[in-house]
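$ run holo --ligand "4'-deoxy-4'-aminopyridoxal-5'-phosphate" --emit tokens
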Amino acid sequence: MIDETLTMIPGPTPVHPRILAALARPTVSHVAPSFVEEFRTALVDLRTLCKSTSAQPFIIAGAGTLAMEVALVNVVSPGQKILVISHGYFGDRFAELAAAFGIQCDLLRSEWGLAVPPAEVAKRLDGGSYTAVTITHVDTSTGTASPVEAYCDLLRGRDELVILDGVCATGGIDERFDAWGIDVLLTGPQKAIGAPPGVALCLFSERAMERRRARSSVPAYYADILRWLPIMQDPGRYYSTPCVNEIIALGAALRIVHEEGLAARFARHDQIARAIRAGLEALGLTLFTAPDCRGATLSVVLLPEAIADAQFRKETAARGIVVAGGLGPIAGKAFRLGHMGNIGASEVVAALGAIEGSLRALGISLPSGAAVAAAAAFLPRA
Ligand code: PMP
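-- output --
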């Protein structure tokens, strides 16, 4: 489309026109029967997406960070201790949240680009006493995917609650809330679910709900799940005005997710990740994340030393593709390319074409069309 840019950052991701149309509908009362029904359906569709039959879903106006806060403050009390497994910037955020609420924290960090081996988690669990363990499914700063199932196997039958941050995974990578024994899954709409930002999403297991009910109060008001529970059970009731349009848009995004089917959707994300990575490597670029722990939702890509990050991103933007810069120790040395949500083969081709053109404009000599040709082998309809 003329003058349109394609936002290929790791969130927010491109929003399908059907979802945008839902967002643009006239705002109705938060207790209008049509909205109440859509809210109710979105709650059920969220739970189905996360493969749970019994967890309590919450959809609250806010962002992913609010969802992290909701997850933590409702099940961990000040003075208690958590184990934070961190694969980067967003894993570390749990430690910052803990500090803000007087929660003690052991931070088990990997080197950037690697994942913490389950054996190290086992060692910490043997040596410590924790109320909860936090896992970031895919850390958006490093592209690292956690071996969630392996960590959960270690936690099965134990008292520590499992808190999973799915912000950069839910909707693009399989998450089996019930089968893995997750207690709190928190996530956001603006990445692999493909909706606009604006809501904090959480699922609480019965055990997690019990932990909250056992406490007379929590250091929160807006983020207290017991205040929200009546609304999530009957969305026609009022506590704090829900973001009507964002919830309708989320509902449209979840409908698309379920129309595609979860297995097909996760397979598409895998296929697109393979295609993009083949294309990037054909351009001589190196992926930052270790091969055995790359999340399918984004790629973190090292830039050739001769190329300045800001200049590179300016070149891709001039070609209609917005990519994100590196964070933390790889700031200025890498770019991050989101490939999740509502994207398909055309976006892959457009992004790779722009990256190739940008590298060439910045003095790297490359055979023409190399990236797209390498990617095409993984794209059935390219
Ligand atoms: N967790 C992860 C893994 C994220 O990628 C992000 C956002 N990039 C967050 C949490 C925080 O979400 P938000 O920016 O919506 O507050």
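-- notes --
The CA atoms of residues 304 and 338 lie 19 Å apart.
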